[in-house]
């Protein structure tokens, strides 16, 4: 992949960008899927920064893209190699995959963006530099025991790497979601976010 500026001139800007981060098995995908389902589909799009990485990896290594994007064990076989390769790309252009995801998912056709896999301070930086006050940040947190129940196993080179740890010392989030399998508590937290979106969008 040639690493250069992908940029096209932005014709329209989103009204609300929700940036979600959290540890593996914290429930980011589960929560973002719920929020996308609750918002009218014509108003929102789901972006995954990992999608351009996995798309390239699937094409160049004859792998199944859908399986790499899934939550199963398939992607875990290739996770460390994908991380190593993508870090080399980011060293040349820290916003490369953020911008690639915006293009890949045709995000500018929708006013609300849900980004389910923010992992680095540079991801936050890129979105805030380009979209300013439209950006809202959400940290999803789950107890380690709960994450283990969901299938998380500590993996050296993954769980102690930048992809999992770079945002650990970020303290300022617009929302912090506690996702410890308490459905009523989770529902209240999701409703708080949906209400804020409604106020922004006047839906």
List the helices and strands and how they pair.
Elements: E1 16-22, H1 28-38, E2 44-47, H2 50-61, H3 65-69, H4 79-92, H5 96-104, E3 112-115, H6 121-131, E4 135-141, H7 144-149, H8 162-165, E5 175-178, H9 183-201
Parallel strand pairs: 1-3, 1-4, 2-3, 4-5
Key terms for this structure?
203 residues; alpha/beta; Rossmann fold; five-stranded parallel beta sheet; 9 helices; globular; lipid metabolism; sterol biosynthesis
The average pLDDT value, as a whole number, equals 87
The proportion of residues in beta strands is 5-15%
The number of helical elements comes to 9
Helix/strand-derived category reads alpha/beta
Please give the radius of gyration in angstroms.
17 Å
- Remind me, CATH topology? Rossmann fold
Helix content: 40-55%
Output the helix-strand order.
EHEHHHHEHEHHEH
Largest sheet: 5 strands, parallel
**Shape annotation:** globular
CATH class: Alpha Beta
What topology, given as strand order, has the largest sheet? Answer: 2-3-1-4-5
Looking at the overall shape, the CATH architecture is 3-Layer(aba) Sandwich
CATH superfamily: P-loop containing nucleotide triphosphate hydrolases
State the end-to-end CA separation.
40 Å
Number of strands: 5
How many distinct domains? 1
Subcellular location: Cytoplasm, Cytosol
Binding site for ATP: 23-29, 150, 189
Pfam families: P-mevalo_kinase (PF04275)
GO cellular component, one term: cytosol
């Amino acid at each position: 992949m040639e690493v250069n500026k992908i940029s096209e001139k932005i014709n329209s800007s989103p009204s609300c960008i929700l940036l979600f981060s959290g540890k593996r098995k914290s429930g980011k995908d589960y929560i973002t899927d719920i929020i996308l389902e609750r918002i009218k589909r014509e108003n929102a799009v789901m972006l995954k920064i990992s999608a351009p990485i996995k798309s390239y990896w699937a094409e160049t290594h004859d792998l199944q893209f859908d399986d790499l994007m899934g939550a199963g064990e398939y992607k875990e076989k290739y996770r460390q190699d994908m991380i190593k390769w993508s870090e080399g790309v980011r060293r040349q252009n820290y916003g490369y995959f953020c911008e690639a995801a915006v293009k890949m998912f045709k995000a500018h056709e929708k006013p609300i963006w849900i980004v389910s896999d923010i992992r680095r301070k540079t991801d936050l930086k890129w979105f805030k530099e380009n979209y300013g006050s439209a950006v809202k940040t959400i940290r999803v947190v789950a107890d380690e025991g709960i994450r283990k129940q969901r299938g998380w196993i500590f993996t050296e080179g993954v769980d102690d790497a930048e992809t999992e740890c770079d945002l650990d010392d970020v303290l300022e989030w617009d929302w912090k979601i506690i996702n410890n399998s308490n459905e009523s508590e989770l529902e209240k937290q999701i409703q708080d976010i949906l209400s804020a979106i409604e106020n922004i969008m006047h839906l």
